[in-house]
Amino acid sequence: METIKTKQTEPYLKVIPLGGLGEVGRNMTLLEYKDSILVIDMGFRMPEEGMPGIDYIIPNIAYLTKNKKYKNIVGVVFTHGHYDHIGGVPYIMGRIGNPPIYASPLTRGIILKRQEEIPMQPKLKITEVKDGSKINLGPFKVEFFRQTHTIPDNLGLFIETPVGNILHTSDFKFDKYPVNEEPTDFAKLKTLGSRGITLLMSDSTGAEQEGHSLSEREINKNLGEIFKKTKGRIIVATFSSLINRLQQIITLSEKHGRKVAIVGHSMKTNVWITKELGLLKAKKGTILKRPSDVNNYKDEEVTIMCTGAQGEETSGLMKIVLKEHPTVSIKKGDTMVFSSSVIPGNERAVQSLKDDLLRQDAIIYHYGMMDIHAGGHAKQEELKEMMQIMRPKFFMPVHGQYSMLVANARLAEECNIKKENVLVIDNGNIINLQKDKAYIDTKEVPANYVMVDGLGIGDVGEVVLRDRQVLAEDGIFVVIAIVNKKTGKVQTSPDIISRGFVYLKESQDLLKETRRRVVMAIEGATGSGKIVNWTYMKDKVRDDIGDFLFKKTERRPMVLPVIIEV
Amino acid sequence: METIKTKQTEPYLKVIPLGGLGEVGRNMTLLEYKDSILVIDMGFRMPEEGMPGIDYIIPNIAYLTKNKKYKNIVGVVFTHGHYDHIGGVPYIMGRIGNPPIYASPLTRGIILKRQEEIPMQPKLKITEVKDGSKINLGPFKVEFFRQTHTIPDNLGLFIETPVGNILHTSDFKFDKYPVNEEPTDFAKLKTLGSRGITLLMSDSTGAEQEGHSLSEREINKNLGEIFKKTKGRIIVATFSSLINRLQQIITLSEKHGRKVAIVGHSMKTNVWITKELGLLKAKKGTILKRPSDVNNYKDEEVTIMCTGAQGEETSGLMKIVLKEHPTVSIKKGDTMVFSSSVIPGNERAVQSLKDDLLRQDAIIYHYGMMDIHAGGHAKQEELKEMMQIMRPKFFMPVHGQYSMLVANARLAEECNIKKENVLVIDNGNIINLQKDKAYIDTKEVPANYVMVDGLGIGDVGEVVLRDRQVLAEDGIFVVIAIVNKKTGKVQTSPDIISRGFVYLKESQDLLKETRRRVVMAIEGATGSGKIVNWTYMKDKVRDDIGDFLFKKTERRPMVLPVIIEV
Fold first, then answer.
1. Is A363 at the interface with chain B, CB within 8 A?
2. How far apart (Å, rounded) are the C-alpha atoms in residues B386 and B393?
3. DSSP codes, A75-102
4. For residues A56 and A65, what is the distance between their CA atoms, to the nearest angstrom?
5. Between chains, do B476 and A469 touch, taking CB under 8 Å as contact?
6. Model pTM?
7. Which residue of B has its CA nearest to A506?
8. Which residues contact A315 (CB under 8 A, 6 or more apart)?
9. Residue-wise pLDDT tens for chain B (566 aa)?
10. Which of B41, B203, B474, B544 is catalytic?
11. Is A203 one of the annotated active-site residues of the chain?
12. Would an 8 Å CB–CB cutoff place A440 in contact with chain B?
């Protein structure tokens, strides 16, 4: 009885995801126990369609800023250096009191490099951690263990808490033969699992995919085949964040007597950071200083490694393909290797890029043709293996679209984790956790999108976005009329400024008729004298002109009446 | 010697694609011989990204309208009733003298139905043709033969011309066990091939896919399994143009005692047309009058067949999922079947739709999980079989992205068609064809995009589109200042209207400073008196304010200065 009583009065640990659930990216989770909050990751995500002009979406931290709750933060721990886990730092850290950070050397390096790009940042307090590090943060004791992914220095988290142990997988895959890092340490994972896991928080990104992820050894073999048989230049496009792939391309180039030119700012930066830290190896002279240096070598001695595999408009590869790059362009016989998947939403851009390459007689290899790319996320068999090793009491799928979380939850049921102990939730939901009990709170914390646009954080909301969408569809139509306050008459012909609607020079008749209607609308509303009801007057002009333009064109530009009384 | 001489002076037949090459959709090709032009298809395509507000893109017909060349048109032949082959009709026919049309009954029905939706159309002159029809059009003798696709009444074209026979495959696949139509007539194809083919124009949409397309019998079997085991309601989302799939769903519903409600305007229309023509069969009472009628039946007696499989915002399915449909919403236990592929570019919308369905506890089947969708296009093995049957002298891949055309060309080489006789070209290129000779002309005809926006055809060009993109990114910022023409001073504080930039109510400091700078810019330019150089003045305000706003926000709204002298 004693035990049960204690349990009932014991406080719950709250697990609060502020991002990363029901979406890919923007990962950030809080563990809150009494007056202590541990923050795990602080990522951003890319905007959705219908969000023109938005740079990133970051987690909503209203829960932390309200009543200065952030003062309870005992530390921020980072799993790895990808932007969906660290990208929120420059937009958030300064607003939550700049709490202490714990990160691996590469994660730290990437965070600090990023800080340089964003103005007015506080000096971060970062403690380096590595595989095996243990740190005490209030009621939380965090142990870091390495996990295989696509970037070195990726760390899973084993967190001792007053309600039991929480294991957070970070992004991971199991790879017995990785490139540029050690094989997965199953012995270590088993040791952790044997200590008893109350809650397993596991990566869901690959949960809809059957089987086991490909080993980087396979990828390396296939890339090797291409290097072996190619006579001309090799251009490899991949993600700049796939550090281990970059290593493969560099090593293969060295093996086949090729120098490597790097095109793309983020790739250059990442190569620089990882080389500095000794996490990427290249012989002296392998990496060329400038892209134009390729012209000093024969075609068979050249690899160009670039960003832009997603068909991004401003990427180095796009400039090369569109003949806009100052020194590099596509030559007949170039071999283009897309060592990357296509991120959903980018299919059309990538197709168009491929078409343009083919028109210039390049030879193309992409992942639809052979295994020259593997993702960094565990697929179903690996996810189940992780569950079997950890045998958690409770299971919470994290990182991924809702369909991925649901798929991961189904795997948990296959692994005999009780259905009621599988917690599929959305951002802003709260899990109340005790050793033997967990439930989803009826309360929620704010978790809606916070948009970053230029220097503005959160100042672009629904109204501004809706206006942008309307402006994008049919443009704007500004009507300027000067009204004589004595007579109520419109002086001279109203001016019209329009953008994105029709090509004005070719629409003189339409404009003439519109001006006439503006005068009618205004003079009908003024009667004969001073404007009394400005709102009515402006609404009338807006509606009359809007209807008229729609009737004539079936377009609905935003109509802005500017009426000036003199 | 005689023969050779005749050949040299003999005119070439020109093959001029105005759309459909290097893109999916907008299919339209001209065959021109001396003073006669035969038009094949007249489709549209959907806009690309970065074309906000655009409804469709249609072929450029400048070549036909220049010097009224369209007067030479001897006829327009249509292969089938999909919008990428007929969608251009209401935007083009009236501008090229409304020439006679030859189309199968269903194609005719769809064209006429579409005409009703677009105002001010000429009465079309359509002659019905069917499998086996032969018509003489000037120097062209066109024979129609049926081809299996996803819509009934699809016709390939065998065209006798003065330079030999041209075979146009239409969109096609080989299916020995199709649903709702006859199996592929290989005997007929062989007969046509044996008559000798100078030029084969063959569908390339599936040319990058290995193997053979799935038979509809397979799809039907798998859909049948779902119908068999499902207890609750079945909601099937598919393309409204996949008439043969609609038939399958209706037949399966009848077999399993389900009534069918149809949600979505285009699907209702297509069911109506095909039923009228006897090309779609449903027992009396199977198809419910209104979606709300589903509420009169038990869940296991209901199928809902709807559009919206691409996650289209305004589709019936989206309304159902977002609880915005007046009478139908998702129930726990509903089974949602996506009998469709995802069109490139729609991946994110479809993902979001699936997530929302899962949040409402629906069960989902999609084509990634089992074969419940097959496309309508021949894959590599079928394409090669077609070439082997026709054994053409020249080969021209049509219909598809450039990468698909290239893939189809490679297949032709595998089939021993000489490399120099394989003609991979772009829209607007001209092939000059004789019996034993073909070359690509150095001249080109205009083939750039013509955009349809509302009632406007071609009036939205680069300038308007670029303005829309700028407006979408960072909005608009209108500055209104009244200047006293005697003193050159700004009267009262300048007005500011902004949309899509920042939320004005929360940016009062920014606005105050902006107003101050507007006054500075204007009064700096006026000196003290009348405005002399209006262009300079406006540019100065635009630049100063633009720079200031960028410095403060890192956004670049379109700045429109309105300066009024009184």
1. no
2. 13
3. EEE-S-S-HHHHTTHHHHGGGGT---EE
4. 20
5. no
6. 0.91
7. B459
8. A264, A306, A307, A308
9. 334 444 456 899 999 999 999 999 999 999 999 999 999 999 999 998 889 999 999 999 999 999 999 999 999 999 999 999 999 999 999 999 999 999 999 999 999 999 999 888 999 999 999 999 999 999 999 999 999 999 999 999 999 999 999 999 999 999 999 988 889 999 999 999 999 999 999 999 999 999 999 999 999 999 999 999 999 999 999 999 999 999 999 999 999 999 999 999 999 999 999 999 999 999 999 999 999 999 999 999 999 999 999 999 888 899 999 999 998 999 999 999 999 989 888 899 999 999 999 999 999 999 888 898 989 999 999 999 999 999 999 999 999 999 999 999 999 999 999 999 999 999 999 999 999 999 999 999 999 999 999 888 888 888 899 999 999 999 999 999 999 888 889 988 999 999 999 877 778 899 999 999 999 999 887 776 777 788 888 999 999 999 999 999 999 999 999 998 88
10. B203
11. yes
12. no
Among chain B residues, the shortest Cα distance to A553 is held by B455
Catalytic-role residue among A377, A399, A453, A474: A377
Q: Which residue has the tokens 């429109």?
A: B560
Which of A380, A476, A478 would you mutate first to test chain B, the one with the most B CBs within 10 A?
A476
Identify which of A347, A456, A503 has the shortest CB distance to residue B502: A456
- Among candidates B48, B356, B482 on the partner chain, residue whose Cβ is nearest the Cβ of A564: B482
Q: How far apart are CA A23 and CA A444, in angstroms?
A: 18
Name the active-site residue from B377, B453, B474, B544: B377
Chain A interface includes B472 (CB < 8 A) = yes
Please answer yes or no on whether B476 and A476 come within 8 Å at the CB atom: yes
Domain ranges of chain A: 13-211+376-457, 216-366, 475-565
Closest CB to B472: pick one of A461, A468, A495: A468
Interchain proximity A403–B354, CB inside 8 Å: yes
- A52, A348, A500 member nearest B345 (Cβ): A348
CATH architecture designation of domain B13-211+376-457: 4-Layer Sandwich (3.60)
Task: Match domain B216-366 to its CATH number in 3.40.50.1000, 3.40.50.2300, 3.40.50.10710, 3.40.630.30.
Answer: 3.40.50.10710
Nearest Cα residue to A449 out of A63, A92, A60, A23? A60
Catalytic residue, chosen from A153, A175, A203, A544, is: A203
If one counts every other C-beta atom within 10 angstroms of the C-beta of residue B525, the result is 21
CATH C-level class of A475-565 = alpha beta
To the query of whether residue B168 is one of the catalytic residues in this protein, the response is no
B24 touches chain A (CB under 8 A): no
B151: Cα separation from own chain's centroid: 16
Give CA–CA dist B373/B338, Å, rounded.
8
Q: Are B268 and B260 in contact (CB under 8 A)?
A: no
User: How many other C-beta atoms lie within 10 A of the C-beta of residue A415?
Assistant: 18
